[in-house]
Amino acid sequence: MIQGLDHVQLAMPRGQEPQGRAFYGGLLGLGEVPKPPELAKRGGLWFELADGRGLHLGVEEPFAPAKKAHPAFRVATLDALAQALKAAGHPVTWDDSVPDVRRFHSADPFGNRLEFQASGPHGS
């Protein structure tokens, strides 16, 4: 029945699109995709990952960040991303509890939990 994953949606506060663009588009390098006009009226942002899957940020009121639920992104340059996130003031918490997977958790500007990983014990 299910053939794959199209997109993941995270919540964001109303009016915070500039912060979302700076983080997801600027810092993480995701390409922004225009929302359909009817959905654009609601606020929020859509981004596309290199594999064509989407990351959507939807306005939620009242807003509450996801502290446990999270997307996990595969990253080619994990250490470089960790350094960039730290330099931008975002937390970086390494976690070696999954064998053969280098990974860390961070948070977007809204407090949503994010995981970044590279497969293998010596991932980049």
UniProtKB/TrEMBL annotation:
Superkingdom of source: Bacteria
Residue ranges of every copy of the VOC domain listed in the record: 4-119
Coiled-coil features, chain-numbered ranges: none
Name of this chain's protein: Glyoxalase
